[in-house]
Q: What sequence folds into this?
């Protein structure tokens, strides 16, 4: 199913960027092969001066940026404080925080 969204063309480093996103249903390896093949075919057909790049799947969670880790610690701290107030204990909130990774799995 194709769904049109607003084309937000932004300028970065004196280049115009248009982001194309898609949902792929299937294994990760097949997704990589299809994406690489489509990028090669697209770059062959694009006129001079135009290129298509692959930014990767998890561009919002970069290892060089550590701000998201501090935000996780702040969230865990807030959850601990709220649970400590509600349970009127400092030990019971630890059980709630310890169950968060299990719930994520």
A:
């Amino acid at each position: 199913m194709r769904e049109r969204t607003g084309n937000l063309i932004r300028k970065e480093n004196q280049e115009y960027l248009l982001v194309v996103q898609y949902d792929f249903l299937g294994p990760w390896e097949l997704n990589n092969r299809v994406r690489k093949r489509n990028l090669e075919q697209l770059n062959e057909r694009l006129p001079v001066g135009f290129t298509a790049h692959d930014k990767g799947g998890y561009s919002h969670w970069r290892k060089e940026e550590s701000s998201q880790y501090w935000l996780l610690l702040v969230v865990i701290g807030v959850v601990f404080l709220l649970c400590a107030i509600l349970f009127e204990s400092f030990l019971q909130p630890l059980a709630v925080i310890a169950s968060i990774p299990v719930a994520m799995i």
Remarks:
- Strands lie at 9-12, 15-18.
- The chain is about 50% helix and 10% strand.
